[in-house]
Amino acid sequence: MSADRLSSVSKEVKSESVSLCPLGAADAPEQELLCIFGTGDFGRSLGQRLLQSGYRVVYGSRRPHSCGPLPQGAQVMSHAAAAAQSASLVFVCIHREHYDFLETLAPQLKGKVLVDVSNNLKKNLYPEANAEYLQRLIPGAHVVKAFNTLSAWALQNGPSDASRQVYLCGNGAEAKEAVSEVAIKLGLTVLDRGSLTAARELEDFPLQLFPEWRLPLRLAASLAAFFFFYLLIRDVVYTYAGEGRDISFRIMVSLANKVFPIVSLIMLALCYLPGVIAAFLQLYRGTKYKRFPNWLDRWMLCRKQLGLLALGFASLHVLYTLIIPIRYYVRFRLAGSTISNIKENKTPVFDTTLAWRSDSYYSMGILGYALYVLLGITSLPSVSNALSWREFSFIQSKMGYLTLFFCTFHTYLYGWSRFLSPSTYKWYTPPGYMLSLVVPSVVLVLKLLIVLPCVDRTLTRIRRGWERTDPKDDTKKSLLT
């Protein structure tokens, strides 16, 4: 390469190069100023997060000189002085009953975005939502309802998966966009709920106590109460009335250890029963585009909660079973039986059938509980988010039915030959474990029908969009033609 060409290349490089000189303080972008009315727990936590995210924060307080410790780097002044600042976005972190003074600040707050984060102590406490009341007090401002579903603790420690979402609503698109930018910068996910008329709905969110768990909890409590009193009458009351023996001490462990597995097995079956019903509905209708009944929709939405409660009852059953060898009643019966055999010089005969039955019974129980735990772990958001839909469906569906089969077979092995023994039916009533087998057996039989090749092929076609043609529609079309 010639010297002239090298010199031309070097000149081009020099002309396109950029000097990497450090920026001075004057060249740094100015941090955006935000205002917070209120110096309570939520206001302090929010201010700390905003400062960490690169904002400047000024507090408005009714007692600026005695408002307690505030985040380092924040300013504090009166409400009027804070409202007069250049901050275009103001967080109103005060309760509704203290909103009256804001009406006097209407001129200073005109054109600014007011973020209402307040909540009430109970539903329908006021005729209108807090955000709507604030908008009526300051008509010149743009009120946005947001951040009311977060707690001060969540802001201090960083949002987790359960508290990462921020619901907001408002009448101004630009105002909601400004609040959304702040929320996203704080590492939150924004969900727009529409206009300010949705503010009452957002204010009711924090007042709800386990809304998705109500039906499963009521069902679990009802099943537990029913089987507890049912077994109490069959085991304790029947023994006292018929034989005159008091075995009420068995209520605490033996009776409870019968209730827990019964409720667990029924609730596990109830997790998969709605899916089977939905499949038969689709087969009957010949399409997937018709809505399911509301009761079935609600049932299918709470399957996760039903499964977790079932896992909880199964875990209690495991713990209660582990303490059986150390119970006084068991040790007393075992010692008495051993001493009796020694006195009578008897040697029990080894029963191979009973050995097979007991080992199979314990094996099915262990395998069923292991799969139970696997289902519970994969239902956690942190685990399910790491799985593909096919992996998650395989575990929750295929492995779930296998879990139900193991647990049901475990219960059948427990009954064994007692199903045909007349002494089992005290007062002509079946034992609790027999009643617990009804729902899971029905679910397994119906699922077996669905997986038949001829049925499964049709169901797969329906779920892929195929629709069965109605003969009546065909006749109508032919007549029109």
Ranges with pLDDT <50 over ≥5 residues? 5-27, 474-481
Kindly report the oligomeric state of this protein: single chain
Mean pLDDT, to the nearest integer, reads 88
Number of helices: 20
Distance from N terminus to C terminus (CA atoms, Å) equals 83 Å
**How many strand elements?**
8
Characterise this structure.
- The chain is α/β, with parallel strands linked by helices and 481 residues long.
- 56% of the residues lie in helices and 7% in strands.
- It has an eight-stranded mixed beta sheet, sandwiched between helices.
- α7 (173-185) links the parallel β7 (165-170) and β8 (189-192).
- α12 (303-322) crosses α14 and α14 packs antiparallel against α16.
- The longest helix has 32 residues, at 254-285.
- Residues 5-27 and 474-481 have low confidence and may be disordered.
Ordered list of secondary-structure elements with their pairings:
Layout lengths: L2 H14 L16 E5 L3 H12 L3 E5 L14 E3 L1 H5 L5 E4 L13 H4 L3 E4 L13 H8 L4 E5 L5 H6 L7 E6 L2 H13 L3 E4 L6 H6 L9 H30 L10 H32 L8 H8 L1 H20 L5 H16 L8 H27 L2 H4 L4 H27 L16 H5 L1 H13 L2 H11 L7 H10 L1
Helix pairs in contact: 9-10, 10-12, 10-16, 10-18, 12-14, 14-16
Short description:
This protein is an alpha/beta fold and 481 residues long. The chain has helices spanning 3-16, 41-52, 79-83, 106-109, 130-137, 152-157, 173-185, 199-204, 214-243, 254-285, 294-301, 303-322, 328-343, 352-378, 381-384, 389-415, 432-436, 438-450, 453-463, 471-480; strands spanning 33-37, 56-60, 75-77, 89-92, 113-116, 142-146, 165-170, 189-192.
